[in-house]
Amino acid sequence: MAVTGRHAAPDPARPGDALVRVGAFVFLLGVVAVVAAVVPSVLTGEPGRLPLVVLAGSLLPLGLGIALLGLLRAARTARRSARRRRTHVPSA
């Protein structure tokens, strides 16, 4: 984050940032859905809605996978740009 004067300028968006945000949102949505499906069955003692728990639980690894893909994409882009800078150094 670049600091100019009293305010910090936001970093420019990098490749993979959107995937990380979407993955985090899907993961958190899965956590909320699992808690909403499991807590009532724990409090009442009745068996919960199993298909709902399975469906909600599948959002957790899906969100994690999406976020990891975003991180991999950002790392590949950073490595590629570092390699370009290293190979294109002008001679003095």
Verbal overview:
With 92 residues, the protein is mainly α. It has a domain at 16-79. Helix content is 72%, strand content 7%. It has helices spanning 17-44, 50-87, and strands at 2-4, 7-9. Helix 1 (17-44) runs antiparallel to helix 2 (50-87). The two termini are 31 Å apart. The mean pLDDT is 82.
Largest sheet: 2 strands, antiparallel
Give me the secondary-structure category.
Answer: mainly alpha
Shape descriptor reads elongated
| Poorly predicted regions | none
Order of helices and strands: EEHH
**Number of DSSP strands?**
2
What is the CA-based Rg, rounded?
A: 21 Å
- Which strand-content bin applies to the residues? 5-15%
Question: Considering DSSP H and I runs of 4 or more, what fraction of the residues is helical?
Answer: over 70%
How many helix segments? 2
Strand order of the largest sheet: 1-2
CA-to-CA gap between the ends?
31 Å
